[in-house]
């Protein structure tokens, strides 16, 4: 038993030596990294990734395609840990405080606009299988997930949704999903606990190819022309919130996994 093991050890050790000898791109490095050095590297990565996430949420990194490779674990920890939940709760609570501070006209024209994906419905189960944003977005794969209609609610958003409805806002859902996904979208929303919305607006054939900012601005323009007052808008993408006919107040939910222009 010992001889074969010894042979394997010598074999792999020789491979490592050969690799170092013939690969000119390997930088000289100490064989043993001190614990403190490892901790410093770890802290630096965390700081860099926190800085990256700040840039994402502040819309300073516009546009970006995927989570940087070195931040994959960081984003995963953020999404699965307490931090993401806390951030969602803060957005929901602050939105609720603002909503309650308004005096509605009572004519049924005061509206709150919600985006759907990563605003009302969570796609964490899908992104868990797709590297939490490390992979380039694959619309065909994502649509297969959407068709299952099993995305859970983001609970703090469901709380806000019920609050603004109880306060008397009309609730309009404005999503970049295609009109062909209307029935699965309705099914998923209802399964997740969302009910009684006043309008669900999806991309019609005339909207395909439009940037999200343009599509959503066009739809908000129609709302305003119909006499609605957009008092609140909740979305996980800046393209849900920016453009023309913007809401009186916009609330940005966190999303470090993907960016939609
Ligand atoms: Mg969204």
From TrEMBL:
One of its GO terms (molecular function) is acid phosphatase activity. The keyword Signal applies. It comes from the Eukaryota. Pfam families: Acid_phosphat_B (PF03767). Keywords: Glycoprotein, Signal, Storage protein. Residues 1-18 form the signal peptide. PANTHER family: ACID PHOSPHATASE-LIKE PROTEIN (PTHR31284:SF7). Belongs to the APS1/VSP family. May function as somatic storage protein during early seedling development. NCBIfam families: plant-AP. This is Acid phosphatase. It comes from Populus trichocarpa.
